[in-house]
Protein 1
Amino acid sequence: MKERTKFAVTGALAGAANGFFGAGGGLFLVPLLVSWCNMEQRKAFATSVAVILPLSAVSAAIYWIKGGLDLTAAWPYLLGGALGGVIAGRIFQKVSMVWLRRVFGLLILYGGIRAVLLL
């Protein structure tokens, strides 16, 4: 399969996750960019962040058009998320890949356990 096709399929999976769940596209992107698209892991994390912004903007716009987005309620999370993103972006290069993988894995595991137990 051509590399561009792999990137497009990977992006489509991330977009679908964002559309269905309101987030989570990065959970598809990072593992697929590393294993299927042969991207270095640190670059995959950074690429995932860059890709999620427009995917989230598209998903948010659709939710807003359909009346499912409360912008007033979203502002505090947006501001807190932006602050967290700036802080994490500054320390990203200082954290070892071992710890980044561990934290990423724990977040996936935590989300999966919550999803199963809260149903």
Protein 2
Amino acid sequence: MKKLSAFLTLVMLVCLLAACGSTPPPSEPSSSSSSESSSSKVVESSQSTATQTAVLYAVFNGGEVKEYPVAYTGAQITAEELADELTGLTGLDFTITASKGTDGLTVDWAADSTLLAGLGGREQKTDFFFFDSDSLGWFMMDSLWKTLTENLGVEDIYYTMDGGQELVVGTMSPPLNEFPSDTPYMGSEFYEAHSDGQGDMSDVGDIYLRTEGLWRMDGEADAASIEMDGIGGFTMYYASGAVEAAGYLECVDEYGDGSYRYDCYTMDGTLITSFYFDSETQIHLGNDETVYRLDEGTFMQRACLGFWQYPEGMILELGAERWTLYADDGVTVLSDGPVRYEEEAVYLMNDDGSSGGGRASFDDDGNLVESGCILTYLGRDYSDVPKG
């Protein structure tokens, strides 16, 4: 019995020892889990210190776009930082604040930004020099818009000003200077193409009006050119100045979606070539992609066309070919004559060709100045101003 009792005791001890051995020790972090956590911290650290590249986009009148890479550190560059980079690049004040919305980014232009305050007395950089306030305004809005959408992955940019007010750029020509805060900014080409009297496709006359002016191959003065009268007529010139061809235009809605093609015919009905608009200041011919740009003197003409009021109340009408000065009643004609537009100024000539009417040009703030007087723009709608 003693042997049996000792045997049972031994069996029980063995079972107890076996049960104790089956209990796992307290768990510790696995080597793989520890490695993943360490790796994650290294990635986060490298993202915050690694040098990355953003691209600044400078969008010029005529559709020309230049790219400027800039380096930065951090996981994501901000809208304000991109705007600051544009300021350093161009010498213009891109002073903004940005906030995210449900469907895009709202960008608020500060009152002291160059867009709203004008150039003032600043000396413009050679690569970013503007003769008129419209070109300056479009450049700033287009460049920031493209820079933000390309770098931040946002599709819609909403512009406001001075703390959330509706954006009205006082230095630019109305009506293309007002931008609703509830509508995404669409770019200058869109607004110019859909503005009344400048490319509005709802009227046949306007379809040809956008062709008006002298268009030079590659924008060069000593190259071939095309002169169009804005009502469907054209004349093509060789680089020597000799006439190559003349005739009329036919506008075709090629795909039924507003992709207008302009066919050039001689007076006997022979098709010479076709062209398309890349922007309001650039066209290309057919399939060979030859580019023609609107002459710089025509830039000045388009900026000046319409009615301008002197501080004394007199009204200056600037047309495509003639100028007329009215008394403050808007009816009495004081003087008139032909107009000559050049790159930097408009010359008010006498009928005999002499310079007697004066010289008008835009100052650094975008104001039209004539004989020392700053003129107030009244618009291009001739019905707004009484005439005899």
Protein 3
Amino acid sequence: MFDNVYIQQRIEKAQTLREEKLNPYRNDCIVTCNNKTFLEQFATLKDMESDEKKDTDSKVWVKGRVKFLRLMGKASFIKIEDEDALLQIYFSQNELTHLFTILKKNLEVGDIVNVYGFPFVTKTGELSLHALDFKILTKAIVPLPEKFHGLSDIELRYRQRYLDLIVNHEVKETFRMRSAIVSHVRKFFENKGFLEVETPMLHPIPGGANARPFITHHNALDVERYLRIAPELYLKRLIVGGFEAVFEINRNFRNEGIDHSHNPEFSMIEFYWAYHTYEDLITLSKELFCYLLESLQLPKQLPFGDMLIDFTQFSTMTYIESLVKIGGISQDIVDNAEQLEQFLQQNHVKIPNDLSYGKLLSEAFDAFVEAKLINPTFITQYPVEISPLARRNDANPMIADRFELFIGGREIANGFSELNDPIDQLERFRAQVAEKEKGDEEAQYMDEDYVWALGYGMPPTAGQGIGIDRLVMLLTNNKSIKDVILFPAMKPVSENYNSITKEEQA
């Protein structure tokens, strides 16, 4: 695996360190100051009037990865980077004596080091550390690539995220922001009185969404199990059991396509609120976004690719209205299944044969509406036949008390007043099973235990799911879901780990 000539040279240098009684993989790191704190704490040295701007009384231990190396005769400069900042180190033969010679011959970009010294300002005005002691903690035997940025390396960035994080500091900032977003989402719901819970990830019946599941085998029980496609049906069982406000920040798995907004393994938050309606969830969603923007210190007008999202402009529109006003389809066509099917075919929208009216509406929405919903828009009153778990509207039983939130041309959230009539739910499941038998692989399975649970009585409840990955994409201005998932799903390739050229050595 480590056959490349440049890697072999580094392996030989690691061996040289061992021969000099210096372990190239030490475990005695001392840290009294991180790089960011050092740069902040001693910044006033730059303002000193003395010719020698230094503080020999303030000695610290720092650590980091070597990102730059300039070796000279009897003195050298390197720059090391820790998690937060880049710091310049000066070391010379005067202080390090024999160690200086060893470092000049064996220290390389990529090595992780531990340095002891005092702060000073160089003649060029850069705050630096004057080294008095120096340890190589970890010898990097694979050189960092010199030319790493750019679209030509996009696959490498995703496949070797560890390398991406080493070289591209802004990538670290994206994932720090992701962590902050998840933390604030959790705080928001906790402050609202919701209880965080955990539900199974291995399901006997995949449910809670229309999606193809991943299938595995449980050896101890000798049964098939499905990786969770959604936690919905378990969370609503908890509402039946007496909890009135629950949420779960969960990982879901859907055996489907991969594109800029879909990854087979993804994160969501789902929450369920007894004695509330989907209108309450619309209000709650607006509050959540205001809370996130304020907590993350983000402006209310956010760039997203070539768009500008205005979070002061929330709007609400019914499903049918959106097809007419946004999609540009005449009301007569929208109201007639046969005409709508002809319209879709004339506009080169590929649709399966014998689609129901509700699914034709869904195809039209996907083709002519979704991408145009830039500012936050709640689309309400979905057809019941594409909403198998949502409550029927009292005034019009053909539509569901449901909404989806679209921002930047993508669905961000899905919520509805929950169906709690066990007989209606049973019939909806039977209709889904019929669709599955006709070849719809994403149709839902029959879940008799869930229907039985509803038989005990579930209070009127509203539930919602928000895609965490898409939320992070939106708030960090990333157009690809792979840029906000640390290890996205990738097509297998034959890795050539030894294809390192001379130009790639840092």
